[in-house]
Write a structure and sequence with these properties.
The chain is an alpha/beta fold and about 210 residues long. It has nine helices and eight strands. This is Epimerase family protein SDR39U1 isoform X4.
């Protein structure tokens, strides 16, 4: 989790801080589902270890009282150069060994790192923004198989070799594997309503920029 504060020098007591923005992981907060659609008002955060951990992170970042405008950004899988999710995927995909995880039917909420930073900046600068924002791209119906095909296309490589569920569970453990094998359809309804303009709303353009 990370958070940003504005107008709050170190010497200033918490009672007069005016703005706080924090970031947590949407893929852990919302319950994995092959059918449900989640927006910022959807319930979650209480069904397993990771969801409860996100709830505790958000509670720790929250300041008491109403004098501080507070924003929580729940991010999807962040796509950026030099590491993160893409850093682990590039080698097998460059070798033509990439493909969907498990069935590939699960949703894959993602966001370009430039847009995640942009949402955080927008939340700080726009005084009307408060509460929870989903930090995911508007292309919320992307499945894991579609993501694999798009990454393969961006690299000019085939991407049809699936990673079996049993391997994912062995490598990541059962609880973490659920987030990869089931996924969630997360929509940034309030983020869009708050006026944020995405730089990379579509997956193809985002991946081309990341691997360029």
């Amino acid at each position: 989790m990370s958070w940003l504060r504005r107008g709050c020098p170190a010497a200033m007591p918490p009672s007069i801080w005016r703005e706080r923005t924090s970031s947590t992981l949407s893929a852990a907060y919302y319950q994995p589902s092959l059918t449900a659609e989640y927006d910022e008002d959807s319930p979650g955060g209480n069904f397993d270890f990771f969801s409860k951990l996100v709830t505790k992170w958000e509670a720790a970042a929250r300041l008491p009282g109403d004098s501080t405008r507070q924003v929580v950004v729940r991010s999807g899988v962040v796509l950026g150069r030099g590491g993160g999710a893409i850093g682990h995927m590039l080698l097998p995909f460059r070798l033509g060994l990439g493909g969907p995880i498990g069935s590939g039917h699960q949703f894959f909420p993602w966001i370009h790192i430039r847009d995640l930073a942009g949402i955080l900046a927008h939340a700080l600068e726009a005084s009307h923004v408060q509460g929870v924002l989903n930090g995911v791209a508007p292309a919320s119906s992307t499945t894991n198989a579609e993501f694999a095909r798009a990454l393969g296309a961006a690299l000019g490589r085939p991407a049809f070799i699936p990673l079996p569920s049993t391997v994912v569970q062995a490598v990541f453990g059962r609880e973490r594997a659920v987030m990869l094998l089931e996924g969630q359809k997360v929509v940034p309804r309030r983020t869009l309503a708050a006026g944020y303009q995405y730089s990379f709303p579509e997956l193809g353009a985002a991946l081309k920029e990341v691997i360029a």
